[in-house]
Amino acid sequence: MSDKKIHRRTLLGGAATAAVILVQSSFGKMLQKAIPESAFTPGDPTKVTGPLPGPMGTRSPFEHPEKTTSLTSSRTPLQSLYGVITPADLHFERHHAGVPAIDPYKHELLVHGMVEKPMIFSLADLKKLPAVSRICFLECSGNFRTGKETMTPQDICGLTSQSEWTGVMLSTLFREVRVKPKATWFLAEGSDAAVMSRSIPVKKGLEDAMIVYAQNGEALRPEQGYPMRLLIPGWEGNTSVKWIRRMELSDQPFMAREETSKYTEPIGDGKIRQFSFDMDARSIITYPAYPVQLERGWVEIRGIAWSGRGKVDMVEISTDAGKNWHKAGLQEPVLDKAHTYFRYLWHWNGQETEIMSRVTDETGYLQPTFKQLSDARGGSKGGYHFNPVTAWRVKRDGQVLLSPDNI
Ligand SMILES: Nc1nc2c(c(=O)[nH]1)N[C@H]1C(S)=C(S)[C@@H](COP(=O)(O)O)O[C@H]1N2
Ligand SMILES: [Mo]
């Protein structure tokens, strides 16, 4: 009797979670989900032998972390993650012309222009060169949305993800082709239908850029640029050209579409900023956040903070709408240009309030409030490189909603 009750409640819990996701998903997906949810009614697991090991692992049918999708992008469910590595199948996606199908045995990377020795690298060639792994985030500069109270962390800033990337330092390739001293820029060109291209300063290329072919221990996913992509740590995601096929060294930028008509932002006085590469420091509380229903008592506030300019130095939490700030604990290791998990223990007394986080990075940069940023951008409430403090309003009934100050 009591056993049955527990199972029933567990299942109801699962069903409730699914219901939230169903609202956000297409009708087709609703049907797909409804079936496994009812089919997996576990009995006593000590009485039957379970499935035997298989070639691929699976998620529990009770867990449904999911990306939300549009025609041009998909967003990481930040509120469903417990750490800083994004499972590869939950990495956000942004494609200008879909995901190309590429034969890794035929794919070639040409490096030419202002170099002593133009070269072509196959995937096999790259894998023979000294390899490096690093953990860093990748964030789209268009990673900001607002508009209504009922938005999740995923809705607001799900265009950031983090992986362990493996590949070759660009400095290694540049040494191979012997880049000429007067080369100051290089063009990176993708082999998708958009032939997406960006100009990158050689200085950054030599500093920490990589050509990567692996992600979280396995080959890159097609969505992330299989078989190889450029990785520019800390810079706007657009510069990390996927499915890369060509790099041309030059003494000036190429003024490609993605750096002239796109990826520039107004900074007031009718001025437009171009080549704004660095991703400014940002943080967001991912728990408690919409659609969580909070209960009075102890709450561990959790979230992520990161900076494109280096390490996170400090995350502060306010639980009284920005009047007082307290240092959150940072989960070690705190890495360069990487999502860093923070936690702060709070006792909620049941009164209406607002909770928010703000990050300071190692350069001393402090994350601005929505109002400060909007004022600095001539009243704009969004656009590229918009990284304001996100405030969550906690209502007396425990409902958590995006603060009206962020809308
Ligand atoms: N070739 C190519 N590279 C590309 C893109 C693209 O459409 N084509 N999108 C860019 C943009 S705008 C971003 S934010 C990142 C997204 O990388 P992801 O899809 O692996 O998350 O890739 C960048 N590299
Ligand atoms: Mo992007």
Automatic annotation (TrEMBL):
InterPro entries for the chain: Ig_E-set, MoCF_OxRdtse_dimer, Mopterin_OxRdtase_euk, OxRdtase_Mopterin-bd_dom, OxRdtase_Mopterin-bd_sf, Sulfite_DH_SoxC, TAT_signal
Keywords attached to this entry: Metal-binding, Molybdenum, Oxidoreductase
Cofactor(s) this protein cannot do without: Mo-molybdopterin
Domain Oxidoreductase molybdopterin-binding: 96-255
Stretches assigned to the Moybdenum cofactor oxidoreductase dimerisation domain: 276-385
GO function terms (MF aspect): heme binding; molybdenum ion binding; molybdopterin cofactor binding; sulfite dehydrogenase activity; sulfite oxidase activity
EC main group: oxidoreductase
Pfam families (UniProt xref): Mo-co_dimer, Oxidored_molyb
Protein name: Sulfite dehydrogenase
UniProt source species: Arcticibacter tournemirensis
